[in-house]
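The following block was generated as part of the benchmark described in Methods. Ligand: iron/sulfur cluster.
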Amino acid sequence: MAWAKRILRVDLTKGTCTHEPLNMDWAQRYLGQRGLATKYLMEEIDPKVDPLDPGNKLIMATGPLTGTCASTAGRYSVITKGALTGAIACSNSGGFFGNEMKNAGLDMIIFEGRAKAPVYLFIDNDDCRLEDASGYWGTSVWDTEEGIKEAHGDPQIRVASIGVAGEKGVKFACVVNDMHRAAGRSGVGTVMGSKNLKAVAIRGTKGVSVDDMPRFLKAAAAGKKVLAENAVTGQGLPAYGTQVLMNVINETGALPTRNHRDIQFEGASKISAEAMAEPRESDGKPNLVRNAACFGCTIACGRVSTVDRTHYTVAERPQYQVASGGLEYEAAWALGAATGVDDLDALTFANFVCNEQGIDPISFGATLGAAMELFEDGVITAKDTGGIEVKFGSAKALTDLAELTGRGEGFGAEIGLGSKLLCEKYGKPELSMSVKGQEFPAYDSRGIQGMGLTYATSNRGACHLRSYTVASEILGIPEKTDPLVTDGKAGLVKAFQDATAAVDSAGICVFTTFAWTLEDIAPQIDAACEGDWSVEKLLEVGERVWNLERQFNLAAGFTGKDDTLPKRLLKDAAKTGPAKGLTNGLEKMLPEYYQLRGWSKDGVPTNETVSRLGM
Amino acid sequence: MLKALNIDPGKCTGCLQCELACSFENEGVFNPSKSRIKVFNFHDQGRFVPYTCTQCDEAWCMHACPVDAIALNKLTGAKEVNDNLCVGCKVCTIACPFGTVNYNSATGKVIKCDLCGGDPECAKACPTEAITFVDADWTGLDKMRKWAARTDAGQQAAH
Ligand code: SF4
Ligand code: SF4
Ligand code: SF4
């Protein structure tokens, strides 16, 4: 139990939906969600395949805890070969979709091939069928979600869909569920669009059980208590959301600003959690309406916000004058500091548009930052941008281009290439702040050294969620380390990577790990799942998952040479703040990291490592 | 002391732990679709509102039932459905003005909140105290206290 022990295979080319039993041997070794789906993908596709070829597959996967009463246990992930990166992609999302999938008796849905015309998958428990989606093609995530619920006359259906961006091949399109929860990174929505798959709509009412219910209820309750009593998960995140970090990271001197030219943003306080709580002039109300939870989450970090009704972006457009998903730290950073824009309402609006059309605000904002640098350097001009003055600090450029990119139109289509292809196109590849084609998130690795190794070795390209050493280097969780030194970071990164891979395979949210260690998580998994799930076994699973992802990337054509950072971070010293004068010391960390991983000098898992992990 | 569920939507984050707890208590599995309490998400307004039977005194459902399958539990004040008597005619679902009695097609009976026999699981599961189980005669006590704290009457005397 905990696993539904059943997957749905959808052949879009043939138009068939078939249930299959879950491979339980693999489940014991890869747990679920991120790990297990990667195993399926590795076995079923050629890693060299073009991400947009029908030969690529796209997997939606829950974890064994998904749908149970463990805190945050509503997660699912989208696993595929990423359109943005060409590397293994696994994007995790909250909201309520994962729970619905599990309640329809599904651990995973595997999509293969390509539909001849736009379709959506409709699942009502055991009844699964592909429906015509031509009426939704060309419409936003929001309209699609509403339209499908209406068409089936069931407001309780949960929907995950792509917006126009995903249809048009914008490289960082996401899959969005429940209006504003996204499997956001690496272009998983782009792959979905390439399959002519507009949406997945589910109604599941079967119920979810676990292996040892009395023990599980106790373990889940103990876990919730730890979250409630922890300062970050019990107070900071519910009150301020992830945005609590904006001022902290700025003061740390690790807030990448204007395409990483600077490391501190003078406008940070204007786009911070504190600013979101300030009453505004027009109506005396703050930007933040309230916090909100994903399924089963007792933290509730989510933000619900409004844009000032008098703001230029919404004044004439009542449809945006309502509450919707507000700014999280990563989005606020990318739409704000990365572009030099400090207009909170413009950021909030751009964030709405990212949700509405399904684009990753991190890659969008960061790519716009790169475009702004190209523009200011005179490499591109208003002729290239359709007349838009793409200047650092321009709120208008931000909001106009959010809309254009969301629809894949005009210069938005070029932003939609992602920073790597955009900068290459204009002969300035060094201006793309990315690793393996994916843009950095909101931490500058000159000010937080461990994050340099995190980014360089992340299997899905630059990403903070693969090993969030910020927790240790800045917040002191579980132990404080010095953000300005490289010593000890190789071990720290490896430990975070392995533990996180296990958490991402379980069905719970990685934000629990601000308070939970594997000591809190293992008893919940152990009670829920058959087999013995100790901390050691989870770490082993995590390490196995990490190595499997690595093998996928090596087979796809990546090498150790791709474990690097843009020149700007390795050569241009930070100009201000505590890290002033520092570059990232990747070369000091990487060899030690390879060694700890049991990889060769070129970053290839040795035979010994592979057999130790039983792969 | 008779107790009642007291719902404060302003505190609700929409996490559905209450629905999980309710369905587990009543069905033995985690299944929000079988929960007696339902949390509504008014997305455009950023409001979450948990809603369940308020055990009204008039109890239209109870009076409407043709086979007396719904009865008052004198200890808890709950109007409880007796599965052995319920014939699944759904008359109660029509009679209840609030929609809090619903049909369960899996069993052919209706389901509604029975206050878990006097120890509501939803209230225990709620992480934000959006649902509490309090003195039925004083469900307004917390709000009164909050507003009382805000009035400045008496402040002068204290200074
Ligand atoms: S911590 Fe935030 S993102 Fe994670 S499950 Fe809770 S509300 Fe969702
Ligand atoms: S009191 Fe019990 S039956 Fe009523 S809504 Fe709460 S959990 Fe459900
Ligand atoms: S458990 Fe509490 S906070 Fe969560 S949805 Fe129910 S009433 Fe709201």
